[in-house]
């Protein structure tokens, strides 16, 4: 009887030991699992945290730029009479802050010109929208821009999505940087070259519309010659540093109808062509 009792006692002790060891093993596995999950959920390095912060900041900045752009369109473009829906659409979409120098990025959506180097400027947003509207562009037409500059006006034209865009810039460095801006934003279809815009771009002429973003002191005859019948030319004309007017010319039956649209201020037109005699304004 005593032997039987001792045997039972030993069995109970072995049972407790087995139970204790089993519980210990289970606890170890649970602890290891928690540690593994904690490690997986943590950023692996401080560099990861920094990268995420930069991305979040970038998204926040782009959102601010978008809101500034929408406000710009409503407050300085729609409010001043531009009503073409396609023009308003592209003015809301093209990121002007991508075309201005870094030191002026905070002013990207202010309604005034900004310097872009080499004595040139990016035009104020209202003027860009107004001149684009005046071109009265239709699907399938070809438009020539004289004065690529930063590439912003060309981007606005290309964003319309239904015209072919050609652009000439007399300053080689600006032609290169303007084309770079356009390509970086996906406007690969815009054809850009460095040259004297006074002579237009005979290789691709005639054009349905021509827009000039610098002011000559007379009307360049080659630009009129490179317009199709019914073509439109929008151009500021006036002496450097003096009074300039924005003109719209329409080619009809071989003649040119001229419309004076009021005073403006543009950088002067440059190039050898400016030494030639111009066409008198009708």
Topology:
Blueprint: H1 2-41, H2 46-77, H3 85-93, E1 114-117, E2 120-122, H4 125-134, E3 142-146, H5 152-159, E4 164-169, H6 172-184, E5 191-194, E6 207-212, H7 221-225, E7 227-237, E8 244-252, E9 255-264
Parallel strand pairs: 3-4, 3-6, 4-5, 6-7
Antiparallel strand pairs: 1-2, 7-8, 8-9
Helix pairs in contact: 2-3, 2-4
Number of strands: 9
Report the C-alpha radius of gyration, rounded. 34 Å
Between the first and last Cα atoms, what is the distance in angstroms?
134 Å
Strand content: 15-25%
Helix content: 40-55%
The poorly predicted ranges are: 1-11, 25-57
Q: Examine the coordinates and then state which fold CATH places here, giving the name of the CATH topology of the domain at 83-275.
A: Rossmann fold
Counted by DSSP, the helix tally is 7
Average pLDDT, all residues: 84
Specify the biggest β-sheet: 7 strands, mixed
Proper CATH architecture of the domain at 83-275:
3-Layer(aba) Sandwich
CATH class of the domain at 83-275: Alpha Beta
CATH superfamily of the domain at 83-275: Vaccinia Virus protein VP39
Q: Helix/strand/pairing class, anyone?
A: alpha/beta
How would you sum up the global shape? globular
Strand order of the largest sheet: 5-4-3-6-7-8-9
SSE string: HHHEEHEHEHEEHEEE
